[in-house]
TrEMBL record:
This is DUF3422 domain-containing protein. The chain crosses the membrane at residues 368-389, 401-422. Pfam families: DUF3422. Keywords: Membrane, Transmembrane, Transmembrane helix. InterPro entries: DUF3422. It comes from the Bacteria.
């Protein structure tokens, strides 16, 4: 169908993005297995091919194109595949009654070799059970037993239409456990609730990925800060000749230190920013749960805020610390460069003064040589005239004066002519050099 207007090429993509985070409607009883695997921003091709292998195993035709999510039925199991920026999530749901919420999870029914070949590294694995409202409520001891004897946290969610319990631990089977009790949810509400709680698990893990690099970076930054303080102290002692250090050595040390700080920032800045973004999503999802306290239990928000907030604060403080150290190193480097330039200017001034003195000395020597040259040329000129006058006198040619007297009279004139000739030659040379310049 032709449109009566010119359509933007990204219009359909933008509308599709609104539905990229879909959910599976659920009806209690049901069980879910959820996996989030970090594969990087460039791992989408591998994950799509791996998904297609699973579809082939169950005889499902390959779709023409897989976008940000894909919802499919694999026999009795439904799969929701979602691609995120850094990770891919798989949510498998199986409706029907069960004896124990967490024994023989849904994921055990999938091909073992396919599970072993999931691209990337699993950062979150969750078993979730949705129980119907007609099932008897658990006591606190029974809840603790379901979660391996660990303390349980939980709250009423969706305004009291359900209850959510977990211990947020990894159990012997490698999965965390979440128990949902339906107290009046519609299938759509149950699907959205399960999705939000599973997203809290995935985004919580992704947010905490920034904490180990922050701790490692803090150790490096502490050493860098100590060295930076030492360099600044040595710079402050430059006036004390007994403790003076070559400024070139200080500048080299500062440059290396600044490079190390920048290397730490390059390794961690993206991770810290991502942790902050994931933390914001976790807080948003927790707010959407609309929790109400269950007497005797800590709510999900209270538990996660008490642990996530300090971790994210550590990432933030580390990011600010490395930025501050980089700025301090840059300021010290600029200051030291200014000192080096001033010192170079002093040395250049001294060199120019020395060259000026040498030039004056050379000028005096040149003038002395010029005087000696005039005397030498005059001496040889007078000698030549003496030979000429004597030769003329010997041949009997009449002379106004005798040869010796004539030679004496000609001596001043010869010296004057020699002096004028050298002056004229020097003037020509200076003029030619001036024209070249």
């Amino acid at each position: 169908m032709s449109l009566p207007f010119k359509e933007h090429p990204l219009r359909h993509q933008l509308v599709t993005e609104l539905h990229a985070r879909t959910y599976m409607p659920l009806r209690a009883p049901a069980r879910l297995s959820h996996i989030a695997a970090v594969c990087g921003e460039r791992g989408s091709g591998r994950t799509v091919r791996h998904l297609q292998e699973l579809l082939e195993h169950y005889g499902v035709p390959r779709p023409e194109r897989i976008e940000q999510y894909y919802l499919v039925r694999l026999g009795d199991i439904r799969l929701l595949w979602e691609r995120h920026t850094e990770f891919v999530s798989y949510t498998f749901s199986l409706p029907g009654p069960f004896t124990h919420p967490f024994v023989n999870p849904v994921i055990t029914q999938l091909p073992a070799d396919w599970l072993a070949g999931i691209p990337g590294e699993v950062v979150a694995a969750v078993s979730l059970a949705l129980e119907p409202a007609d099932k008897p409520e658990y006591s606190l001891d029974e809840l603790s037993a379901l979660f391996g004897g660990h303390p349980v946290i939980g709250s009423e969610v969706v305004g009291g239409l359900a209850r959510a319990y977990s211990d947020l631990r990894i159990h012997e089977d490698g999965f965390s456990r979440i128990l949902l009790r339906d107290q009046g949810l519609s299938p759509n509400q149950a699907g959205r609730l399960a999705k939000r709680i599973l997203e809290v698990s995935s985004y919580r893990a992704m947010a905490l990925l920034g904490l180990p690099p922050a701790r490692e970076a803090n150790a490096c930054l502490s050493d860098a800060e100590r060295r930076l303080v030492a360099v600044s102290s040595r710079m402050a002692c430059q006036d004390d000749r007994s403790q003076e250090v070559p400024e070139s050595e200080l500048l080299a040390e500062l440059t290396d230190l600044a490079a190390e700080i920048e290397a730490v920032a390059a390794r961690t800045s993206y991770r810290f920013e991502a942790s902050r973004a994931y933390y914001s999503v976790v807080m948003q999802r927790l707010d959407q749960l609309r929790q109400r306290r269950i007497e005797g239990l800590q709510t999900l928000t209270e538990f996660l805020e008490a642990r996530l907030t300090p971790a994210i604060a550590t990432c933030d403080s580390t990011a600010k610390r490395q930025q501050g150290l980089a700025e301090r190193a840059a300021r010290l480097t600029s200051l030291l460069r200014a000192r080096v330039e001033v010192e170079l200017q002093k040395q250049n001034r001294g060199l120019l003064e020395s060259m000026n003195k040498r030039a004056k000395l050379q000028l005096r020597l040149q003038e002395t040589v010029e005087g000696l040259s005039v005397i030498a040329i005059g001496y040889y000129g007078v000698g030549l005239l003496a030979y000429l006058f004597k030769a003329l006198e010997a041949h009997g040619l009449p002379l106004a004066f005798d040869a010796t007297y004539a030679t004496g009279l000609a001596a001043p004139l010869v010296v004057l002519i020699a002096w004028l000739g050298i002056r004229r030659m020097k003037a020509r040379l200076l003029k030619s050099e001036h024209v070249k310049v």
